[in-house]
Amino acid sequence: MASHNASLDKRNPALVISRRAAFSSAAMLSLPLLEAILSRKAAALIEADDDEELLEKVKGDRQKRLEKRETLIGLKDETAYVQNAVYQMSKAGQAIEKDDFVEASNILGAADWVSKTKEAFSKVSKNSEQQGQAEIFTSSLQTLQTAVSNKDGQSAKVAFFTSATALEKWTSLTGLTEQIKGL
Fold first, then answer.
1. How many angstroms separate the CA atoms of 70 and 136, rounded?
2. Where are the domains of the chain?
3. 143: number of Cβ within 10 Å
4. Between 140 and which of 65, 124, 162, 175 could a Cys-Cys bridge form, CB atoms 3.0 to 4.6 Å apart?
5. What is the DSSP letter of 19?
6. What share of the chain is helix, strand, coil (3-state, %, to 5)?
7. How far apart are CA 138 and CA 162, in angstroms?
8. Tens of pLDDT along 101-129?
9. What region holds the Maintenance of Photosystem II under High light 2 C-terminal domain (predicted)?
10. What does the alpha-carbon distance between residue 174 and residue 21 come to, in Å, rounded to a whole number?
11. Within the chain, how many helices (H) and strands (E) appear?
12. What is the C-alpha end-to-end distance of the chain, expressed in Å?
């Protein structure tokens, strides 16, 4: 140990630097460089022409979202009709699950909510895909009503699933998903 300390003492004192002193020196020397980097204004990452195109695209997308929101706000009655359909379907599904075909028949046989749902479908559906899902819902609902009337639990469950899936897809396609609860 003594020979090790003796060799340290023979070194040039100016060359012996502690780690702390080395890091402090490096930090002090790098501060002006860091300040220069941070104070410099950021250069544009995209060309001005690309920036204009991007800005126009963003404006167009925003306009479409605003138009869609305004359209959905104007469909309060239709949204309420579809929300009621979800509620009625849920009640019917619970009755079918319990094999309570009388209750399911009472729910599914109520013409008022069915006709208002069809009215909402015809007013809101703007393209063939939306109309197709509305038609699937309507036809599978008729199949569901028949299966419940015949007390055919298996067919009723299949028709219920088909109806519910079509209703869920339709709300997604029309943009009503956020307004409709319970899907």
1. 27
2. 9-39, 72-174
3. 17
4. 162
5. H
6. 80, 0, 20
7. 10
8. 999 999 998 779 999 999 999 999 989 99
9. 80-183
10. 68
11. 8, 0
12. 79
